[in-house]
Every structure is written in structure tokens, then in C-alpha cells.
What does this fold into?
Amino acid sequence: MRVLSSIFLLLASTNVIAETTMIAPMIHGIQFCESAMSRKFKNIIDAVSYCKSINESSASLIEKKLLMFGPQQSKDKKFEIGYVLTLPLLSFVDMESDGNFRINKENINFQLKLLKDSKLPVVIYFFANHFGAGQNFEIEELISKKDNKSLMQLSDGSVPMDDYFASKIYPWTINSNNSLITKVRKAALTEVLTQICEMSDKDKSKIRAVTTLGEIHYTFPSFFNGMGYKDNIQLTDYSEDSITKFRKYLIDKYKTINILNEKFGSNFNSFDEITPPSKNIMKDHLNNFFEHLNYESSGTLTIYGWANINRDKSSKIKIYVDGQEIGEAETGLNRMDVYEAIPALGRSDVGYRYYLDFRNMSHGIHSVDIVYEKKSHSTLLKHLDVSVMDRQQSTPKPMGKKVLFPDESDIQFWNDYPESLIAVYYNPLSEEFYSFRKSEVANEIIDYTRMIASSCIGKEKVFSHQIAPMLNGDWSEEKLAVGDSLKVNDYYNIGFNTYGSAFYSKYTFDWLKKSKITKYGLPEVHPMVENTEIIKKAILNHHDNGASFIVPYYVDILPNSFKEDINHAKFKIEKDNKGYHSNAYFKAINDIMRNN
It folds into this structure.
């Protein structure tokens, strides 16, 4: 899911504020041209072919369309309007059935013509992630069939191919320089950078930022609906290349198998005996305990749900273990599913989450209580019995008492996960596999951002374009393994997508502060909330917190005669589009640009 004026920063007391934040919408139909409007093409492919044949870009259409938001720069000069130039790297590749390929320089040249033709500032999006890039996905299909090293695998050897709206999902391998997908993407990116750097200084100066690759993470079955904790956990990547790299990761960390065995309490004879965990001890036959994998096997039990606590500062959700308070749950997390089911909530930042670290908890059945506290008055939301198991699966005994607070009866709430009587087993190899996967995602992004940073674009303008599961209360971070890629680093600026209250919640701004992120971009944004004032306040807050650019998803320049996926069209920012409250989003941007 997920589709700038000056980016120099001013130091103001303890906050870093972008001089001007560019509001740069993602453009649907970006290769369509104005001359094609009167020709009544039946499909977008024929229309784009015509535009290429007459060498006409979409510059005039984009500039006219973006006038709907008001002046190009707001009166207070905090914001200016630009656009996103999406450059799908795989669309610049001509490939033969034998796997040989060439980069289509003419196609790149045509796409970059928009940069020359439009006077507006731009965020360039080097799009090359798991979402299909073309209309018919010919290149993706050729790569996936020609080179199995280009695709991630589940533990049973299958490849989790999937769909997302009208797009296919290709689970491209991560951080593998020997794969065909990597060779193709890097060759295309090299040529695009070459042509950009040959442009005039005037045209290059329009580039305020670039985002790299798109959302990079590990994939899994049912990508659209499977972000959370439903069913058995299925992870990638179990390909031969990934297993080899995981073993090398362990060798680099532990040096000898004896050190690893001492740490894990294992008895491996060599690193070659180690394979990433993939079986559930509760259901599958294990050859050894270290094959165990489920949602808790890395040592933390995710406790999450939602509660309508009205964002009252005196309201807290606390966690008790065996009658003793051990911590406070994170609140204000995005729960779009709840907001869509109960619109009367008014917004989606109602999620709560607590990561219970049980790695050092004693073997036994522990009482875990989720408690709502308001002005020192405590009530019980949910009681759980959690069995912390040993490796021998010996029968656990009760370890502690539950709290004696009365049941909560005034607020709306629900604890989604886990159910009571859950049994949890800590497998240190599962924890290492998670750490390995996080480092692989970060290294993949670093690899490509280095290419861009070493070009004429430079490092200061380079941003990631990442998914941020920690902002969504019902998403499993371990499935995606993106945590390391969202940490401040020396290679790129943080860019992360925000849908729903991930854009406007206090939690997001607290996360930015906690993570020490003072300069960032928002490559895809849709608040999906009806209240215009909430959206306006969030836009201003992001400016004040250092956002170099905000990318509203999305603006359409295609004529209505072209069919579009009905569900996807809900994101279209138009004055009269009530889908996902896109009309409120339109009004908020319009008000911001007119200083209303």
C-alpha cells in the first residue's frame, strides 16, 4: 500500500523546519498528453503511443490540473505545489525471451521530456519495487520465468505471487546482485541518471528530491489482507541464496559454531546445518527446536487492539503481568479497519499495541491484564493467560494472580490479539532470522541510493520510499522486516508512506521525534478522514517537523472515458470525490495553499 521548494533546513530552537514543503501529487496518467484528449482513444496504451509519436509530454495537462489547488506558492511561503515524475525502471527495458536485454534510451528520453517542459518543481520517483510497472507486465513475466534467483520463496519452495488492486505483485529478491532483476534495474537506473545529468542546470534545479525503488520489504501470501496476525505466519525468503546469506550473517556475528551453540543452547556441528526457522512447534514435526517459527518465536508477544479513549492525555492503557504493572501500551495507532466499520469515531488513530518481551520470563502460566487508566482510576479491558513454554513442552503451572480492577463498561474497545491461553516459545534463531531480514532490506535501499547520491543529484536530495508498519496497530512488523531501513543513516533521508491516521496521529510525530528524524519526505499520503481541519493541522505539523515534501495520492489527468478500478479510484483527489473522503483532502490542500 501503498502509490519542495528548498529542502535546506533551518535550525529553530530544538526543531528542524523545512523552509518550504512541496506538496507534490502523484499523477495518474503521467504519459498522457493534451493532444490525445480530442482523439477518443479506447485505451491508455494507444493514447500514450500517440503522445510519444508526436513527442508531446503531459506538462500542460499537469500544470492546468494542479491549478485546482490554488496558487503555486502559499502566501506564507511554507508550501508550494509541484508534482511527482514517476519513472518505472522496468518500463525502460527491452528484453528477449533468452534473458538478454537492452535499455530503451528513447523511452527514457521521452519520459524526461516532462521535466524539461514543465516549469514546476518535481520529486522524481525511481519506481522499481514488487508492484508491476507496465500495462501488461511483459518484462516482469520474462524476468520471473527466466531467472528463479530473482524471486523470493516461501519455506515450501513456492513463490508468493499476488495482486494488489489492478497491479500484480512480484516478490523480487532482496539484496542479490547475481539476480537478473538487480542487473536490469541497475542498468536502467544508470541510464536514467546519465540522461538527467546531461540536462541543463535550469532543468536539473527543478529536481527537489528523489525517492528510491518504492516500498522494499519481504512479501508473503495475501499481501492485500495479510499484513496482520491472521492464520499461520508465512515468511520469505527461503531461497538458496537467502539461506546462504543468512548463514554468512551468523558466521560474521558469532565467528564459530561453538560460540553460537553456547549462546543458543544448541548442538549444531557447523553453520551449514542451520536453516532459517519455518515450522510451528504447535502443529508441525520439528527435527530440532530451532526450526520453530510463529508470530511469537522471536521473543515478543504482540498485544494489540483498539479503544476509543478520545485522545485524552489522562487516559492510558497499561499492561500488568502477574498483578504488577510492567509498562504502558502505545496508543494513537492507525486502525483504518475500525474507522471504516465505525465512522462515528471520527478518525482512525484508535489503535493500541504492546510488545511483551517474554525472553526472560519464567516457564509457567502468567496472568496478563490490559488495563484502562484515566485520572488514576483503573478498569480491566482484557485478561489473558499466557503460557511461557520451555523447549521440552513440559506442563506449565500458574505463576501469578490477575488484577482486581472492575471491568470497563463506558468506552468502546476490543483486544484483537492474542486470545487467552496462548502458548509462546522463544527461539533465538527466529530472532536472528528477523534481524538478518531487517538488515537485508536496509542494505538493498542503501545499494541503490549510493548510485543516485554519487550522481549529479547528490545525497541531500535522496529519500527512501518506505512502508512504515509500526504506525499501523494491526500490522505485523516481522513479516515486512523494514525496521532498520527506517532508522536515520548516512546514505539517504527517511521517506515513509502514510495512509489514514499514520499521517495525522500524534503517535507519528512522537515517533519522528523519538527516532531523531528531523528531515524527511512523505512519498505517498492519503489521510482518509472526513475532517478537513485534522488534515490541515497535520500538513502544517509536518512542515514544522521537517517534511521536505508531501505527496498526495493521487491526482488524475486522464479523461473519464478510460476505465479505472473502482476501489482504487476512491483515492483520487477531487472536489466531489467522497471515496475515502478525498473531497476533504482536496479542500484541505486548497485551504493550505490559499492560507484559509
